């Protein structure tokens, strides 16, 4: 495999064609920093609500904060109102010095779709186009990208029309999670849809998302679809070194074998401490880290009792003692690299506002007040 070119997103030069997908409660500054330590790429914040940002919601302000090592400040916004998204983007660019804004129109969470947001929004193409236009104009020279799904369900696919509109309105790239909102996180991602979108969009990069568990998956996706880069979500949960593997693979260098458990434990300690430092509250940070313990240990021969105890740890001392008891020489059995981590739910009925699919050309923004949930 020859060395792979990087990725250009507007004026941003990304050395590797790799983007960290925003994930609710996961891709905070501490996790982004950990992932970035393994390789180049574009590391995007958790999704934040444009309305909550303007209302100076404390949780949102924290999610929108960046670490000192983040030279490229990349943030994902959720919005359904063109005026609100324009004001939020202006604030982010002019006051917070953000370098990249990604618009989320792919979140399948019922809390978001029932208000016409996330994956429901492209089903209203006129409103979607106005939202994108408002964000692009407010951003000025800062690139705006869009992350979407294939559509609401197989009977309401929106990605081609939405992709073309986004391109026409001046976005710098379009990312497609190749599932419908109805699929949620179930089934296989439809990489053929990524190829179809790539053929349809001729002037902006197309990024593929879905089922990239290993570096080989990323190379395969790019070869099969012709996409310009990959967006990595659940594949890096408990595997921040996936970005090192991707850097090797894209450079044509052999990918290292999966780490022994001792190396995994070292990364777990580092991650937990970074969360404590970022939050300044050990109890909260350790509780936050507990969700990661199962992901880090997926596939490793660690007993159920140890997993359960780690998932209930409440201090760094307790976490360290439990990690000390694990066998550092334990190896990951072959084939376990691709075991799913994170969301696996679905398919599920998509909750939409009343008459949403009937009134497709209605440009009126839905009322999204309170839709502060995040996901992708």
UniProtKB/TrEMBL annotation:
FMN binds at residues 22-24, 76, 147, 177, 233-234. Residues 355-376 are annotated as: Disordered. Its EC number is 1.3.1.-. Its cofactor is FMN. Keywords: Flavoprotein, FMN, NADP, Nucleotide-binding, Oxidoreductase, RNA-binding, tRNA processing, tRNA-binding. The active site is at residue 107. Pfam families: Dus (PF01207). GO terms for molecular function: flavin adenine dinucleotide binding; tRNA binding; tRNA dihydrouridine synthase activity. It comes from the Bacteria. It catalyses: a 5,6-dihydrouridine in tRNA + NADP(+) = a uridine in tRNA + NADPH + H(+); a 5,6-dihydrouridine in tRNA + NAD(+) = a uridine in tRNA + NADH + H(+). Residues 20-323 form the DUS-like FMN-binding domain. It is an enzyme of class 1 (oxidoreductase). Belongs to the dus family. NCBIfam families: nifR3_yhdG (TIGR00737). Catalyzes the synthesis of 5,6-dihydrouridine (D), a modified base found in the D-loop of most tRNAs, via the reduction of the C5-C6 double bond in target uridines. This is tRNA-dihydrouridine synthase. It comes from uncultured Frankineae bacterium.
